[in-house]
Amino acid sequence: MRFPHLFRPGRIGALEVPNRIIGSPMERNYCTAEGRVTQRYVDYLAARARGGAGLLYTEATYVDPRGKGRALQMGLHDDGLVEDFARLVDAVHRHGGRIGPELNYGGRVVHPAVSGLETRAPSGVPYAGAGGHVPRALARDEIAGLVDAFAQAARRAVDAGCDFVGIHSAHGYLLSQFLSP
Ligand SMILES: Cc1cc2nc3c(=O)[nH]c(=O)nc-3n(C[C@H](O)[C@H](O)[C@H](O)COP(=O)(O)O)c2cc1C
User: Fold this and answer.
1) pLDDT tens-digit map of 96-124
2) pTM above 0.85, yes or no
3) How many CB atoms lie within 10 A of CB 145?
4) For 7-43, how does the pLDDT look when each residue is reduced to its tens digit (9 = 90+)?
5) How far is the CA of 173 from the centre of ligand 1 (A)?
6) What is d(CA 8, CA 30) in angstroms, rounded to the nearest whole number?
7) Which helix (H) or strand (E) holds 176?
8) Is 173 a residue of the active site?
9) Which among 10, 42, 77, 175 is least buried, having the fewest CB atoms inside 10 angstroms?
10) What residues line ligand 1, using a CB cutoff of 6 Å?
11) Domains and CATH numbers, the chain
């Protein structure tokens, strides 16, 4: 066989995965406007798990509504979202898959019209791709608040039964904004 390890179990740290097939995080726009998991989302990822993917990411999942970038994006910013998130986790687990979210905060690249809220970023540097609005530069205590928002969202993922939590530090979102002048 050309890829002898593909269908063999593996480990990522303490996490055991049934095979090496991973569904990468992809925004699907299948949640509600409040970021809540829908039956459509459950069915979608359950089908991928049933098809044999060993590990499935959900998608860039906002930890605070001000970091929301898409109308029907997934959120984990509120304890009231955990119950429906857990239904998604259970559906994937029933097919033997592992599942977790990719926690995110958009920052300067999200358009304020999507969330109806103020956008915040490391600096007040506009982004033409999001209409050229100028985000407000975060104060130091707000940065600490965001660290806590990531931690709380991670705790909600654990409460929902997730196997892992990813942190989105790429694609020009908040954490990568801190890394780039
Ligand atoms: C519709 C769509 C949504 C995506 N959303 C995310 C996302 O939420 N988070 C992320 O890290 N990457 C996202 N990506 C990138 C994918 O995870 C993946 O890295 C990329 O598509 C390259 O893999 P491929 O060559 O197999 O398509 C998205 C890609 C697509 C096509």
Assistant:
1) 999 999 999 999 999 999 999 999 999 99
2) yes
3) 12
4) 999 999 999 999 999 999 999 999 999 999 999 999 9
5) 14
6) 31
7) helix 174-179
8) yes
9) 10
10) 24-27, 59-60, 102, 168, 171
11) 22-175 (3.20.20.70)
